[in-house]
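Protein Record: Sequence and Backbone Structure Tokens
======================================================
Tokens: labelled as protein backbone structure tokens, with as many entries as the chain has residues.
Question of interest: how does this chain fold, as expressed in backbone structure tokens?

___
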Amino acid sequence: MLFRWIALAAVLATLPDRLMAMQKVDIELVLAVDVSGSVDGVEQDLQRRGLSGAFRDVAVIDAITALPDGLAVALVAWAGVDEQRTLIAWHRLTDAASAMQFADLIDGALPVDLGSSPYTALGDALIWSLAELARNGYAGRGKIDVSGDGRNNCGEYPQPVRDRAVADGVTINGLAILNEDPYLTNFYQRSVIGGPGAFVLEAADYASFTEAMRRKLLRELAIGPIAVR
């Protein structure tokens, strides 16, 4: 655990350097999706459809197009300790064509097998996502969009990781999928989300994931402050 905190401190120390990055964007967004053992093949396929469908949605495309400097986005999959993977490296989206291209990449990236881990390492997923923000070559408002259907049960606890990230200007938003735990939203509110305008949305199950992700992206891409609800 000490090693992970040292690694996290090193990652966060580099975040201010993003101001010197090569390309300015309005938002840098990590999509961090749960692919642990509780998420079976059918549910992963519903995740894939929900994510790619959101980037093909007309309202989401309009929100991306409205950003003066665009959106930088990457897709991360996570499960247990040492089970994180960046499935899609950073892409800058500015219009319908780039959004559609990213949707096509999602279709080719999921489902993914990380060993069907029975564990849920949310804190480790946040550390990995912070590392992606620190080294992506863009300068903008850093955000992590984490979705999952379970509470942290191994690795780093997410709350102190969240607190360090927020102190360095990163916002963490959540999508709680309630098919395994009807009270998961409370855990996300208490221990996962944080930062200006941070919020958590609910999906009753993976069949509801598409609409929930669409609404989530629209809130994350809105220009200006958004009230927490």
Notes: Residues 41-56 form the longest helix (16 residues). The longest strand covers residues 23-34. The chain has eight helices and six strands. The domain at 2-11+32-221 is CATH 3.40.50.410 (Rossmann fold).
